[in-house]
Amino acid sequence: MKPYAAYAIGAALVDTEIQVTDAELSAMSVEKGMMTLVDQDRQREMLAQLSDHLIAASHASGGSAGNSMIATAMMGAPTYMSCKVAKDADGDIYLADLEESGVAHGATDRNNDGATGKCIVLITPDAERSLNTHLGVSETISTDEVDETAIKDSAWVYLEGYLVTSPSGHAAALKTKALAEQHGVHTAVSFSDPGMVKFFRDNMAAMVEGGVELVFCNESEALEWGECDQLDDAVAAIKYVAKRFVITLGADGALCWDGETLHRVAAQPVDAVNTNGAGDMFAGAFLYALSRGETDLRATEFATLAAGEVVKYFGPRLDRDACLGLRRQFFGD
Questions:
Q1: 27 belongs to a structural domain
Q2: Is the Cβ–Cβ distance between 137 and 85 less than 8 Å?
Q3: Is the pLDDT of residue 274 over 80?
Q4: In Å, how far are 37, 193, 211, 256 from 204, measured between CA atoms?
Q5: How far is CA 274 from CA 17, 46, 126, 312, in A?
Q6: Is the dihedral of CA 20, 45, 11, 58 positive or negative?
Q7: CATH code of the domain containing 161
Q8: Is the pTM of this model over 0.85?
Q9: How far is 236 from 238, CA to CA, in rounded Å?
Q10: Residue 202 counted as domain residue
Q11: Between 147 and 277, the higher pLDDT residue
Q12: Between 20 and 30 A from 202 (CA), which of 31, 49, 211, 333?
């Protein structure tokens, strides 16, 4: 057994979740269901427009890879997160959340100029989330943050697709993948967002060049990767770059290719209020199940259950008690 179930590198963000109407989303020219990179001025403008909503806003540390590593750790398998935060209140919140959740990190240099990354998460009545992200100092995450020792001490490396937007972040992802291959560590890549695949296709292709062990994506990302409109064609396209993969299908569950068989896993009906963090929870729960030695099919079943639970609540993830409750419910321990 290695010290860490997984090692990840990615953006450290503090989320502000705000409930809005579709009309308000349209008035602010926000593309629904997508992640859009914005600057601080744009975030301030949005918050000013939503000033009457802020009293009900909720705040939590976020970021795709961070959410997944926290989920895996809170279920009982320690993880490691490489990230970059500023010396500010949001940076304090983010690192405290990692530490309290059982996620180790190397973010000890807090003399970074600028601000810790923030994401305004707009939630519409249909539970869809639209992300408006200012990366802050996370935009400058680089090969300097890559920790070879932690990679070697991990069973998996997990790369969030959002790293394709930053030249230095993309370089960090490629170095992490190369070190994982050097030390015999499996690599998992999340496509993260349809826009990452569509607008940064060359960078995403470089992240999976030569093939990776595992890909996580949703249906929209899979179709974008396959440049097609049929899921069967997307499945065939992903097989070229991943030995195994999972395609999440929202309320319809998930497809899992374990290298030999394509499994379809149904989802339990739930009353969703917020899809923010659903994909991150899925990946975190999947990696936790693998750390127990479970099959990909069992991991998909557990991850589908966990993702279905997190969408019932506001916030990007579940607390420790809820994570352990899911573990007991599914695995009986």
A1: no
A2: yes
A3: no
A4: 17, 11, 12, 21
A5: 9, 20, 8, 7
A6: negative
A7: 3.40.1190.20
A8: yes
A9: 6
A10: yes
A11: 147
A12: 31
Alpha-carbon distance 195 to 214, whole Å? 20
End-to-end alpha-carbon separation of the chain, Å?
A: 19
Pairing of strands 242-248, 58-62: unpaired
Q: How far apart are CA 169 and CA 162, in angstroms?
A: 9
Provide the domain count of the chain: 1
pLDDT in tens, 290-299: 999 999 999 9
Asked if pLDDT for residue 314 goes beyond 90, the answer is: no
314 HSE (CA, 13 A, CB side): 15
Residue 74 lies in a domain: yes
Q: What is the pLDDT of residues 9-40, one digit of tens each?
A: 999 998 888 889 999 999 999 999 998 999 99
pLDDT digits (tens, 9 = 90+) for 209-223: 999 999 999 999 999
Opening angle at CA 255, ends 102 and 232, nearest 5: 140
Could you tell me which of 332, 322, 320 has the C-alpha nearest to residue 102?
320
Residue 14 three-state SS: strand
Is the pLDDT score of 232 beyond 70?
A: yes
Backbone angles phi, psi at 267, to 5 degrees: -105, 150
Parent domain of 172: 4-11+65-113+140-331
Give dist(CA 224, CA 256) in Å, integer. Answer: 18
**51, part of any domain:** no
**HSE-up of residue 249 (Cα within 13 Å, Cβ side):** 16
What is the DSSP secondary-structure string of 191-207?
Answer: ---HHHHHHSHHHHHHH
Q: How far apart (Å, rounded) are the C-alpha atoms in residues 247 and 203? A: 20
Contact 284, 71 (CB under 8 A): yes
HSE of 120, CA atoms in CB hemisphere, 13 A:
29
Q: In the block, which residue shows the tokens 């940076």?
A: 91
Contact in structure between 151 and 176 (CB atoms under 8 Å): yes
What pLDDT score does 326 carry?
A: 96
**What's the one-letter identity of residue 154?**
S
